[in-house]
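Technical note accompanying the year-one report. For the benefit of new consortium partners, we illustrate the data format agreed upon in the data management plan: each record pairs a sequence with a C-alpha coordinate string. No post-processing was applied to the example shown here.
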Amino acid sequence: MRGNPGETVSVVVTTRNSGQTLRACLASIRRQIYPAVELVVVDNHSSDQTPAIAAEYADRVATIGRPARRY
Protein backbone atom coordinates (compact mmCIF):
# COMPACT_ATOMS: atom_id res chain seq x y z
CA MET A 1 0.00 0.00 0.00
CA ARG A 2 1.38 3.37 -0.94
CA GLY A 3 0.26 6.51 0.81
CA ASN A 4 -0.43 9.93 -0.53
CA PRO A 5 1.72 12.78 0.78
CA GLY A 6 0.26 14.17 3.98
CA GLU A 7 -1.92 11.14 4.73
CA THR A 8 -1.59 9.34 8.03
CA VAL A 9 -3.00 5.93 8.87
CA SER A 10 -3.95 5.44 12.51
CA VAL A 11 -3.73 1.95 13.97
CA VAL A 12 -5.43 1.54 17.33
CA VAL A 13 -4.72 -1.60 19.36
CA THR A 14 -7.15 -2.18 22.21
CA THR A 15 -5.72 -4.54 24.79
CA ARG A 16 -6.19 -6.06 28.21
CA ASN A 17 -3.70 -8.53 29.64
CA SER A 18 -2.24 -9.19 26.20
CA GLY A 19 1.40 -9.24 27.20
CA GLN A 20 2.03 -12.58 25.51
CA THR A 21 1.11 -11.21 22.07
CA LEU A 22 1.48 -7.43 22.31
CA ARG A 23 5.21 -7.22 21.54
CA ALA A 24 4.81 -9.24 18.32
CA CYS A 25 1.74 -7.22 17.36
CA LEU A 26 3.48 -3.85 17.77
CA ALA A 27 6.60 -5.05 15.97
CA SER A 28 4.50 -6.26 13.07
CA ILE A 29 2.69 -2.94 12.76
CA ARG A 30 5.99 -1.03 12.90
CA ARG A 31 7.30 -3.10 9.96
CA GLN A 32 4.58 -1.80 7.65
CA ILE A 33 5.90 0.21 4.73
CA TYR A 34 3.19 2.86 4.77
CA PRO A 35 5.05 6.16 5.16
CA ALA A 36 2.99 7.68 7.98
CA VAL A 37 1.58 5.34 10.61
CA GLU A 38 0.30 6.60 13.93
CA LEU A 39 0.18 3.76 16.45
CA VAL A 40 -2.00 4.00 19.56
CA VAL A 41 -2.32 1.36 22.28
CA VAL A 42 -5.43 1.59 24.45
CA ASP A 43 -4.88 -0.49 27.57
CA ASN A 44 -7.94 -1.51 29.59
CA HIS A 45 -6.32 -1.79 33.03
CA SER A 46 -4.04 -4.74 32.35
CA SER A 47 -2.62 -6.53 35.36
CA ASP A 48 0.07 -8.44 33.45
CA GLN A 49 3.20 -7.14 31.69
CA THR A 50 1.19 -5.29 28.99
CA PRO A 51 1.89 -1.77 30.37
CA ALA A 52 5.63 -2.48 30.59
CA ILE A 53 5.72 -3.77 27.02
CA ALA A 54 3.81 -0.73 25.75
CA ALA A 55 6.31 1.47 27.63
CA GLU A 56 9.17 -0.17 25.69
CA TYR A 57 7.66 1.39 22.56
CA ALA A 58 7.00 4.79 24.16
CA ASP A 59 9.10 6.64 21.60
CA ARG A 60 6.96 5.22 18.76
CA VAL A 61 3.58 4.52 20.33
CA ALA A 62 0.99 6.65 22.12
CA THR A 63 -0.42 4.68 25.06
CA ILE A 64 -3.77 5.42 26.66
CA GLY A 65 -4.73 3.72 29.90
CA ARG A 66 -3.09 2.61 33.09
CA PRO A 67 -2.35 -0.62 34.91
CA ALA A 68 -5.03 -2.20 37.07
CA ARG A 69 -5.08 -1.26 40.71
CA ARG A 70 -3.77 -3.82 43.15
CA TYR A 71 -6.05 -4.19 46.17
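Partners are asked to follow this layout when depositing records. Residues 45 and 68 are 4 Å apart (CA to CA).
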